[in-house]
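Tutorial handout. Part one gives the primary structure; part two gives the three-dimensional structure as tokens.
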Amino acid sequence: MDQYTLQYELELGKPWSNPQIYMKLSYPLMKANRIKTPTLFMCARMDFNVPCIGSEQLYQALRSQNIPTELVIYPQQCHSLDRYDFEMDRLQRIKDWIGFYVK
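Part two.
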């Protein structure tokens, strides 16, 4: 069990025993209409700690509101990127995104 899951369960209980608090605290898709900031989502397809589904959902939600957004999914990668070319790509995309949107 991942450490963050253990901490959530100790503080909040199981998700199915207290779904309202989990929805309030940990489901950003339900508040996507409040997001106005251009957002770059990056994830690794095989990441079981932070699955891509959350990024994919928010990406679609922001696109539907015409918020500038980009989604990058690194194939065959887990939580930490282990290929040099993917890591360099990630860093370049972050640099370009900040250079364009942070004035």
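Part three, for discussion. The beta strands are 39-44, 69-74. The mean pLDDT is 90.
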